[in-house]
Amino acid sequence: MKKPAVFVFLFALGQLLFAQDTTVGEFVLRGNTLIRYMGKAETLIIPTNLGITEIGKGAFFRSELRQLRIPEGTTAIQDEAFANSKLESIQLPNSLKSIGNQAFFGCVSLDHITLPAAVSRIGNAAFANSGLTNIILPRSLSTIEKNMFYGCTKLTHITLPDSITEIKESAFYKSGLTRITLSERLSRIGAYAFAECQGLTGISLPASLVSIGDRAFSDCTRLQNIRIPINAAIGNEALHGVKGKPTYF
């Protein structure tokens, strides 16, 4: 006799809700996801024999860990995985494809990170308020998400790959940028994207740009050289408080 669809759904839901967590040494696993690290080590290599494919939400939240290597086969780092931890350096696997929202939020001791070429999604505020001074973004990325580098006061320069077509709201708000090289395919800059980047002195926007959001460059008080495509739509107070006058091309 064929089981009703609702029964099958409820059975599957029950399996998900009551999935058993497994403790292996200092690691707590839920299926192939590492959901918590219970150790106190400052340096850690996650064993490959754990068979993990994801680092779970908040798995290392506020951890004392300083150096970490994540094994190959891991494809995702979930939201807040390392938020507010003492992480200083991390080695990511080539298999990594996704980094969640606020994954490295508040990691003030993390000054650099190398992102694998396969990473195609980095979530909102992934590196916000971190200590990053240098980062190279992969060409598989198409969007700089909201608040991605918000408050990264030590990040003074960055080059965006040509794959980037959009910079979303507050992406670099209050960062330490003094210069940035934009993608030649960039079409949109969101509201407050570069607001209060007070070290920024000049920027050349690409001809591909079609819109600049509200207050995108507001209170960039040292910005005096800015070139804007003549047909780009410019939002309210996008250049409020900017030192110089823009030139159009």
Describe this structure in words.
The chain is mainly beta and 249 residues long. It folds into two domains: 21-136, Alpha-Beta Horseshoe (Leucine-rich repeat, LRR (right-handed beta-alpha superhelix)); 142-249, Ribonuclease Inhibitor (Leucine-rich repeat, LRR (right-handed beta-alpha superhelix)), CATH 3.80.10. It contains one helix and 22 strands. The chain has one helix at 5-17, and strands spanning 22-24, 27-30, 33-37, 43-45, 54-55, 67-69, 76-77, 89-91, 98-99, 112-114, 121-122, 134-136, 143-144, 157-159, 166-167, 179-181, 188-189, 202-204, 211-212, 225-228, 233-234, 247-248. The strands form six sheets. The chain has a seven-stranded mixed sheet, with no helix packed on it. A five-stranded parallel sheet has the order 13-15-17-19-21, with no helix packed on it.
Summarize the structure.
With 249 residues, the protein is mainly β.
Reported by name, the CATH topology of the largest domain is Leucine-rich repeat, LRR (right-handed beta-alpha superhelix)
Q: What strand line-up does the widest sheet have? A: 1-2-3-5-7-9-11
Number of continuous helical runs: 1
Uncertain spans: none
Dominant shape: elongated
Topology order in helix (H) and strand (E) letters: HEEEEEEEEEEEEEEEEEEEEEE
Average residue pLDDT:
93
Whole-number tally of structural domains:
2
CATH architecture label of the largest domain: Alpha-Beta Horseshoe
What is the count of β-strands? 22
Query: Helicity, in percent?
Result: under 10%
Distance between the termini: 72 Å
